[in-house]
Specification:
Helix content: 40-55%
Strand content: 5-15%
Order of helices and strands: HHEHEHEHEHHHHHHHEHEHE
Number of strands: 7
Shape: globular
Bound molecules: S-adenosylmethionine
């Protein structure tokens, strides 16, 4: 047995898995160790997949074009995630610029901060803060200046989706949680117990335009026992909709996606905090500051579009994106998670 020396004290035996290839998230030890297995990780990316425990930033070139960054600028990445966009931004604003990277996720934020520090970015250029972007004005007490740029890449990161314990994906079995900050509030499994069929149907309809909202809500409420796992909820939707005529497996999968999206929006109050941010954002920006919002579904995009259009009408913004910028076909092919992304921009008057 090797001696436990300071050099090998951190050594952990990799998880054993059945068969020839790791399948579950925690078994993908090579993808979870990007630095050590760079070639293997590259192969995963070239297959159009996102390596476990990472996130591939979307529309990077388009966002950098929109933000028109210069050395010395100070601004905010309101959705730090894996830090992919922040990393690119930092390289444009050094040596004197600064990015405040915000995220509500207490699990991923420390890892991202440590990763960026290990790449050499120090507190004078990069500050990580665990906070909701709806509280942006509070950051002004710390920055003592208005911001020159602002980025929000809405929704969830691949690390969150792919970690079964977080309960975001119906493809993986895990607790039905879906909170961006699992240290606050209650998981979806507790919340759905308190809602009646009408209330659940309204969530599915209002947050994701689910056409079978009433049928699914009824099935959840009539389910024999508590719904505590992602697979349980996915299978309730599946068995309810397979009994319907003219509903094919593709439709069922889309309904499962929409129901999970609707519950995620609800449990994290995503529309509430986005509206608050869009309202407060102009007061946090310098004249000429540039804003970029990456959205992933119509509920988000509608809100950003309307706030920008109102802003132009009221003289808050001097110009806005006439139509959303979309990822290139090549990016959609190489990273299918980018396919529904829409980028909207605005320039502060
Ligand atoms: C799509 S990911 C961002 C990925 C990031 N741009 C990158 O390159 O890695 C969205 C992130 O925003 C965070 N987030 C979502 N809503 C938030 C909010 N209201 N305030 C702060 N962070 C939020 C999520 O926890 C998640 O980490």
């Amino acid at each position: 047995m090797p001696e436990l020396t300071p050099q090998n004290a951190d050594y952990k035996r990799r998880i054993r898995y059945k068969g020839t290839h790791p399948r579950r998230f925690e078994e993908k030890y090579k993808e979870l160790c990007v630095d050590k297995y760079a070639d293997d990780v590259q192969k995963v990316i070239s297959r159009g997949q996102t390596p476990a425990g990472t996130h591939r930033p979307i529309c990077v070139k388009e966002i950098l074009d929109v933000l028109d960054l210069k050395p010395g600028m100070i601004g905010v990445d309101a959705t730090l995630g894996y830090g992919g966009h922040t990393h690119e931004i930092l390289q444009k604003i050094l040596p004197d610029g600064k990015v405040y990277g915000l995220d509500v996720d207490p699990v991923e934020l420390p890892k991202t901060e440590a990763r960026l520090r290990s790449l050499g970015f120090e507190e004078n250029n990069f500050i990580a803060r665990r906070m909701n972007f709806a509280g942006l004005p509070q950051l002004l007490n710390e920055s003592h200046c208005l911001f020159d740029f602002f980025l929000a890449d809405l929704g969830v990161s691949s690390m969150q989706i792919d970690t079964p314990d977080r309960g975001f994906s119906f493809k993986l079995d895990g607790p039905l949680d879906l909170r961006l900050n699992p240290q606050r509030g209650f998981p979806v499994s507790s919340i759905i117990k308190t809602l009646n069929s009408e209330e659940l149907a309204a969530i599915f309809h209002d947050n994701a335009d689910e056409p079978w909202c009433h049928v699914i809500a009824d099935a959840i409420c009539k389910y024999d026992g508590p719904v505590t796992t992602t697979k349980q909820l996915a299978s309730i939707i599946h068995s309810t909709l397979t009994q319907r005529k003219n509903v094919n497996p593709d439709d069922i999968k889309k309904s499962q996606q929409r129901v999970f999206q609707a519950l995620r929006i609800y449990v994290n109050n995503e529309y509430g905090v986005l509206d608050q941010l869009l309202n407060l954002l102009p007061s946090c920006l310098n004249p000429g500051a540039r804003i970029a919002f990456l959205t992933f579904h119509s509920g988000e995009d509608r809100r950003v579009k309307k706030a920008f259009q109102d802003g132009v009408r009221n003289g808050i913004y001097s110009s806005i994106a006439p139509t959303p910028v979309r990822p290139t076909n090549e990016e959609k092919r190489s990273n299918p998670r980018s396919s529904c992304a829409k980028l909207r921009w605005a320039i502060k008057q």
